[in-house]
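HOLO CASE FILE
Compound: zinc ion
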Amino acid sequence: MSPSQAGLLGWSASTRAGAALGALAAREVRVAISSPAWWTAPLEPLRWFDDIVGTAPHIFYTVGLFAAVGGLTGLWWGRRSRSRLGGVTLAVIVMMLLVGQIFALRALDTVLPGGLRWVVPRGAPYVLADLHSHSQASGGALMPAQLVQWHYDHGYRVVALSDSNGLRGVPLAVRYVQHHRLPMLVVPAEEYRGTTHLLMFNLRRAVTPARYNVRAAIAEARRQGAFVVVAHPWTSRLAPTRLYAWGAEGFEVVDGNVLASRGTRALCTREALPETADLDFRTGNFPVAATVLPTWADTPQLVQRALAQGCCAALFVTDEIDRGDFHLVPELRHTLHNLRRRTLPLFLAGLAFWGLLGAIMWPLLPALRIFLRSVRLPHGESAAALALGLAAMVAGTAVECMWWQFRQGWYPRSEWALYLWAVCSPLCLVLVTRVSPPE
Ligand SMILES: [Zn+2]
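Model generated. Tokens follow.
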């Protein structure tokens, strides 16, 4: 069945039961969009920047743009200071700052109020699920417990924690739900990330690409009694028909904000295979996809049964979904239109904040310049002590945070990287002024 074009919500399903669920949910479910809190106004210009440079369909375009900006800045500094090393260092720092601010902003927005929330009417015969999510174990911003709470707060009642090539976070997520008696169902899962990515629900032992190729992985997961769905099939080099022949039992037709090709959806319809719509959640607060499941699917095994029967539908916010026909100018116009409509006052307030800060700082700049020139490393002990003190403060917070997570049986990665970035960037800036003083 083709996704419905009319209305705010679209859906797609391959069986009669799935279509009934999808059509009902698309009619009844409401999306509540709230603006970010007013006190996050200084972040809003960065959010606009992030949205605008992120309009391109692939992260590589954004990274390419940043590399170009970093390269040009480095070239300019290198010429000016007649130091090639200085130029290269500055190029790297600019790249780090641009990429780092986007990651930091997305991590922040994951926990700040605002964004999109699904509202399912009371007594509905269906629930919304996200069957593809990553915790800090595989590049997400949240710990398993926080990830479950995030999904609950955004209107989901089922979440599959599907960290890459492992099942380590599942017990933490389950324990959180039990401890807080949260009406949430956690489905144990793994995203097998070999040359093709596969979601394996109700897996008992990890299936890794180091031990299994794609075909063997599907066989091993099914031998364990797991259910195998192909994640974002458009990134696989293998044709959907071949993956189906090898034993894959369903397809993710929406991942994040991308819709699968007509061919993949036609295969699902022809063979009555379950279609899912998942977030591939890592960061953010704007979920635009959900899998609709019947309310009777209230255990991991029953979710598997619902999927096996095709009793599910892919639900998505039509306006936000990329159908694979990317045209830069209309997309940019669409992005700008959405930004203007949602957060223009906040954006202006943010600009005013930075403008005001700039106006206050401007008269102080000569004094700052004189201060920076007076700093003589290694003789400028006071400056060195200041830098060390700052670094120790940030590192102390990092250690506190790591200790908290370590007690939950977890060694954090993303925080560690973030703190390292926060410490390194300013230190590098100080270093680069040492390497190549201007004129
Ligand atoms: Zn993936």
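CASE NOTES: Residues 380-439 form one domain. Confidence is low (pLDDT under 50) at residues 1-6.
CLOSED: yes
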